[in-house]
């Protein structure tokens, strides 16, 4: 009798939070005190190779327990699946998770449930890449175009992108891929940094970090704006004086403004030559973004980190609402949906500059950008991946930056696995850090 196939045996979840609000890391006009957090999932198997699949979605503190509960609601679709079949066709699970009608009702295909689906699907891709012995970017770039197309859910997309068009793009993308791979391994993928620009930083810290960014080889930085115009003018003036005229400077309002306000505010900052204005208004307001784009040109309009799904990206592109598409590795339904988004961007000729930062988003999204370069767009022109120098030491395979570029990961997987000691320390509320913090708070309360 042949042995039974290896299967997924457990879906373990963790509510992991870091106290970034205490140093104002990550602060912006809409989110003044974020505690960067990960709703983290590990897929365990009974396979002899011992491989696991790691994934997560990013939140900023309170509510992370809701995100973890959403991941746990998907457990029944995952436990018991044959590992070989799952890794050979992650799209099957992706469609099953999206197609659960009772859970779909909570979206559909948006919000907490959709982010949970993304965490689980990304964990499957991590497992598949580990079993293949390749970093995810290499697994995707080397895959047959026909197989990649089968991974995509084209429902609601065919008025903008058909499977046949996607296949044509991917077949064309294979041309020159070997030379691009060599360049990627030698040079890396261009990055920009938001580290100097958090809204809570004073001018001295802004100056110090912007100076360091240029010294480290970054050719673009980003500043958070949107809370106070006079303050934004002063901070942009400081930053532009530090980096000089030849380094791009993007600005990011984090959804703070109405449409007319976004136009006025952006125009008030044009003297500092902003490269793009990011999230100038509600991420759901497609026509608003189009109006802003028409009014503030030549300043570019960028958005996407809070776009719910591939359908929103489709409409942003169809409406001519954006100059720069900023996909997020953990906001939509995982790798499968981001494949669709990358192909939509290629169809419409819009550059992709992924959102990163957060907890582990840099680690994840570098793979998608590198795949795009090798197999879809074929270029890094006007393309950069966001980089923030936060929390990388909690990952087993952290990003590596050299001369303002992401170096290509070489370890198998999606670079998603966190260090066990970090999980033990920062799991909320009973990890060692949070337990000690709670004890200190109680002692202070008693002393008062």
TrEMBL record:
Residue ranges the record marks as coiled coil: none
Leading EC class: lyase
Domain of life where this protein originates: Bacteria
GO biological process assignments: carbohydrate catabolic process
Cofactor(s) it depends on: Mg(2+)
Catalysed conversion reaction: L-fuconate = 2-dehydro-3-deoxy-L-fuconate + H2O
GO molecular function: L-fuconate dehydratase activity; magnesium ion binding
CDD domains the UniProt entry points to: rTSbeta_L-fuconate_dehydratase
EC number: 4.2.1.68
Residue ranges annotated for the Mandelate racemase/muconate lactonizing enzyme C-terminal domain, each copy included: 203-299
UniProtKB keywords: Lyase, Magnesium, Metal-binding
UniProt protein name: L-fuconate dehydratase
Organism from which the protein derives: Streptomyces spinoverrucosus
Lineage: Bacteria, Bacillati, Actinomycetota, Actinomycetes, Kitasatosporales
């Amino acid at each position: 009798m042949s042995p039974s196939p290896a299967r997924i045996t457990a879906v373990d979840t963790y509510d992991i939070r870091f106290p970034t609000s205490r140093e104002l890391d990550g602060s912006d006009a809409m989110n003044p005190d974020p505690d960067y957090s990960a709703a983290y999932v590990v897929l365990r198997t009974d396979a002899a190779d011992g491989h696991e699949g790691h994934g997560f979605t990013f939140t900023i503190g309170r509510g992370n327990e809701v995100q973890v509960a959403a991941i746990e609601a998907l457990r029944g679709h995952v436990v018991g699946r044959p590992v070989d079949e799952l890794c050979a066709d992650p799209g099957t699970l992706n469609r099953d998770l999206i197609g659960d009608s009772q859970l779909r009702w909570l979206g559909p295909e948006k919000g907490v449930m959709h982010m949970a689906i993304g965490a689980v699907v990304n964990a499957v891709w991590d497992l598949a890449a580990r079993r293949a012995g390749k970093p995810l970017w290499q697994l995707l770039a080397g895959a047959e175009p026909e197989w990649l197309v089968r991974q995509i859910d084209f429902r609601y997309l065919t008025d903008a992108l058909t499977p046949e068009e996607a296949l044509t793009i991917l077949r064309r993308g294979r041309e020159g891929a070997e030379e691009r791979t060599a360049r990627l391994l030698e040079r890396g993928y261009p990055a920009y940094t938001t580290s100097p620009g958090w809204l809570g930083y004073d001018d001295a810290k802004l100056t110090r970090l912007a100076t360091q960014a240029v010294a480290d080889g970054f050719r673009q930085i980003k500043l958070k704006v949107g809370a106070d115009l006079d303050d934004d003018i002063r901070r942009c003036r400081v930053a532009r004086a530090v980096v000089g005229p030849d380094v791009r400077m993007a600005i990011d309002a984090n959804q703070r403004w109405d449409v007319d306000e976004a136009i006025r505010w952006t125009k008030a900052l044009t003297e500092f030559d902003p490269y793009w204005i990011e999230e100038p208004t509600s991420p759901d307001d497609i026509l608003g973004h189009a109006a802003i784009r028409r009014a503030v040109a030549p300043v570019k309009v960028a958005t996407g980190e809070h776009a719910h799904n591939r359908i929103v990206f489709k409409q942003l592109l169809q409406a001519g609402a954006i100059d720069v598409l900023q996909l997020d590795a953990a906001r939509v339904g995982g790798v499968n949906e981001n494949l669709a988004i990358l192909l939509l961007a290629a169809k419409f000729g819009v550059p992709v500059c992924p959102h990163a930062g957060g907890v582990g988003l840099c680690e994840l999204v570098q793979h998608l950008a590198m795949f795009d370069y090798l197999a879809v767009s074929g270029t890094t022109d006007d393309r950069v991946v966001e980089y923030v120098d936060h929390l990388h030491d909690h990952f087993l395979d952290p990003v590596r930056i050299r001369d303002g570029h992401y170096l290509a990961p070489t370890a198998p997987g999606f670079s998603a696995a966190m260090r066990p000691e970090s999980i033990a320390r920062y799991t909320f509320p009973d990890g060692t850090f949070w337990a000690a913090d709670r004890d200190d708070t109680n002692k202070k309360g008693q002393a008062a």
